[in-house]
Automatic annotation (TrEMBL):
Top-level taxon: Eukaryota
Acidic residues bias: start-end ranges: 57-72
Lineage, top ranks: Eukaryota, Metazoa, Chordata, Craniata, Vertebrata
Organism: Seriola lalandi dorsalis
PANTHER family assigned to the protein according to its UniProt record, in alphabetical order: NUCLEAR RECEPTOR COACTIVATOR 7, NUCLEOLAR PROTEIN 7/ESTROGEN RECEPTOR COACTIVATOR-RELATED
TLDc domain residues: 82-243
Segments for region (Disordered): 53-72
Matches recorded under Pfam families: TLD
Protein name: Nuclear receptor coactivator 7
Length: 244
């Protein structure tokens, strides 16, 4: 089920009256195959901290009601980014899950600061329990990456949920959500990090030096290759996490 907006109106009954919520408050109901249903009350006249979020690309027709009030609302970055500008943030914000809204994003790993090492990336995320945003710029100046519902770690099995998605500014923005075909969201070991999979290819693959990468179409997201070339060289890489 896609997110839907429930407008609370004044209802008069024989045994009592339900009070009308303030105009700046709305109730959101969320349900999907990968999470329990829940209700959230948000303040819609605080566009700096809240944006409506769609759970699938085909629900874009439901988004304008929120985006009209928060078109210029952007995620707040607590650190400087060499890869993300306001244009990137504006497009990505509309695809972030509700639980990330209203929180600043903190830089936890950057090749410019920490060097190029997958081990260091894992080490910097040890103890985290928040979603992460992986952003890559390749040698052809193309920006792309993935939002992961869970921080990256070494794991014997795939992990993550259907909140995970891919994106590419190549040059136009494209987002690729979970297809539901398999659950190969994220897997990692000391030799490589993989996102998406099936039929012999990964949606995004990075080596232990975070230097060589590859991107193929895969069943998990039904995505196109994120870079202009299936095999690419990483110029810069950043990982951000929600700061709670």
């Amino acid at each position: 089920m896609q997110p839907s907006v429930l407008r609370v109106q004044k209802l008069t009954e024989k045994r009592g009256v339900m009070k009308l919520l303030p105009e700046n408050m709305k109730v959101l109901y969320f349900a999907s195959d990968c999470m329990e249903p829940y209700v959230e009350i948000i303040t819609v006249k605080d566009p700096k901290r809240r944006l409506s979020l769609s759970s699938s690309e085909d629900s874009e027709a439901e988004e304008p009601e929120y985006q009209e009030e928060g078109e210029d609302a952007l995620p707040v970055l607590s650190d400087h980014s060499q890869l993300l500008d306001d244009r990137h943030l504006e497009r990505l914000a509309a695809h972030m899950p509700p639980r990330t809204q209203g929180y600043p994003w903190q830089l936890v790993y950057s090749t410019a600061i920490h060097g190029s090492s997958l081990k260091t990336l894992y080490r910097n995320m040890a103890g985290l329990d928040s979603p992460v945003l992986l952003v890559i710029k390749d040698m052809h100046k193309k920006v792309f990456g993935a939002f992961s519902s869970h921080p990256f770690r070494v794991s014997k099995y795939c992990y993550g949920t259907g909140e995970t998605f891919l994106f590419s500014f190549n040059p136009d923005f494209q987002a690729y959500r979970w297809s539901g075909e398999n659950s190969y969201f994220v897997s990692g070991n000391l030799e490589s990090l993989q996102i998406g999979g099936g039929e012999g290819g990964f949606a995004l693959w990075l080596d232990a030096d975070l230097y060589h990468g590859a991107s193929f179409s895969c069943p998990t997201f039904h995505n196109a290759p994120l870079s202009t070339q299936q095999d690419f060289i990483v110029q810069d890489l950043e990982v951000w996490t929600v700061q709670k």
